Amino acid sequence: MSSAAVIGAIVNLNHPAHTVDWSFIHLSVANVVVIGLMLVVFALAVVLPFPGASRRRGGSR
Amino acid sequence: MSSVSPDPPATQAPIKSWTVKVREAGVAALPPEKLLPDGQPTYVASWIYMFGVASIAALIVIIGSGSILSLKGPAWWHYTGVGHFFNSIHLWSVELFFFAMVVHLWGKYWMASWRGGRSRVWMTGAVTFLVAVPCALTGYVSQQNFDAQWISTQAKDSMNSVGVGSFFNLTNFGQMYSYHVLLLPIAVVALVSAHVLLVRKHGVAPPFEFEQRIADLTPAPGSGGDGSGAASDRASA
User: Fold this and answer.
1) Cβ-based neighbours of B91, under 8 Å, separated by 6 or more
2) Are B34 and B198 in contact (CB under 8 A)?
3) Has residue A60 been placed in a domain?
4) Which residues, 6+ apart, have CB-to-CB distance to B111 below 8 Å?
5) A residues 10-39 closer than 8 Å to B (CB)
6) End-to-end Cα separation, chain A, in angstroms
7) DSSP 3-state of B104
8) What value does the mean pLDDT of chain B take?
9) Residue B91: band (very low, low, confident or very high) from pLDDT cuts 50, 70, 90
10) What is the dihedral of CA B147, B153, B155, B160, to 10 degrees?
11) Of A34, A44, A60, the CB nearest to B233
12) Residues of A with Cβ-Cβ distance to B233 under 8 angstroms
């Protein structure tokens, strides 16, 4: 792998993909990371307050 | 002295052309204040309501970057710096589109957003997701590189196993490219447009507790109330 490619890549991708295998489930680690990120973002979107939400609710009553 | 022609008999109903009928039906279904509202219910001030519009924003970037890629061609997107850049923009906007769309789908599923006569809103959204998957797949096999060859030769087996391989041939670049840049994008944009118009028509699905509150505030028929409780809980955008 050239030095330019190593500097350019945040993660070294110059190898066969790592996978997660569980029974019939066969997922690449990259996809597992994305699914995990989606779950985290979903949870944060439900929990975190939206800027100005309480003011809007209070002001409209 | 000038003569005045008599007015036509008032008893004759005006003949409505199909354009008038379509216009009247369109305005009745989506009056301007519903089509382009200046406010949303206060419960929309939540992060979970942001992922639908995030999906649309990503879709706009996908179409823009994809149009530039199709204008310039494979040699440009494989061998020039600017071409690489737009190729990456196209890829990452697709990643963002699916990311936002899946979180939007989860949010709406747990919110049971098909409530209150919104079944068509739910179905157009779900079908959009299903149509977007082959739209992305045909993009991966249209790259014109070894990655595209590998994906197409692997994925063709799944198509053959369900009996559609002769109609949807993943190793046929011309067919896949036509699907990717014309047929499937038209389907996705049409479905998203229908989805957004239906959301405008029916309004955004309220949270469960809000729906119960509306039911508590709505006066029983014949009690004389004006039923304006729900309307008072709106705020300007």
Assistant:
1) none
2) no
3) no
4) B48, B205, B207, B208
5) 34, 37-38
6) 64
7) helix
8) 88
9) very high
10) 170
11) A60
12) 60-61
> Residue B2 above 90 pLDDT?
no
Q: Which domain holds residue A31?
A: 11-47
Q: Per-residue pLDDT averaged across B100-120, rounded? A: 94
Any alpha helices (H) in chain B, and if so which ranges? 18-29, 32-35, 51-72, 74-79, 81-110, 119-140, 146-161, 173-178, 184-202, 208-217
Determine the Cα–Cα distance for residues A27 and A35; give it in Å rounded to an integer. 10
Say how many domains are in chain B: 2
* A24 lies in some domain: yes
> Over the stretch B25-81, which tens digit does the pLDDT of each residue have?
999 999 998 899 888 888 888 899 999 999 999 999 999 999 999 999 999 999 999
**Residues in a beta bridge with A27:** A20
Does a structural domain hold residue A19?
yes
Instruction: Report chain A residues whose CB lies below 8 A from the CB of B235.
Output: 56, 59-60
* Residue B234 confidence (pLDDT): 47
pLDDT on residue B7: 63
Quick one: pLDDT at residue A4? 62
User: What is the pTM (predicted TM-score) of this model?
Assistant: 0.81
Probe site for chain B from A33, A39, A47, A60 (most B CB atoms < 10 A): A60
- The region that residue B12 occupies, defined by phi over 0 for left and psi between -120 and 50 for alpha, beta otherwise, is beta
- Tokens 């649309």: give the residue: B56
Domain, as residue range, for B104:
49-110
Q: Is residue B232 over pLDDT 70?
A: no
Does some domain include residue B198? yes
Asked if residue A41 is part of any domain, the answer here is yes
Amino acid at residue number A46: V
Count of the separate structural domains present in chain A: 1
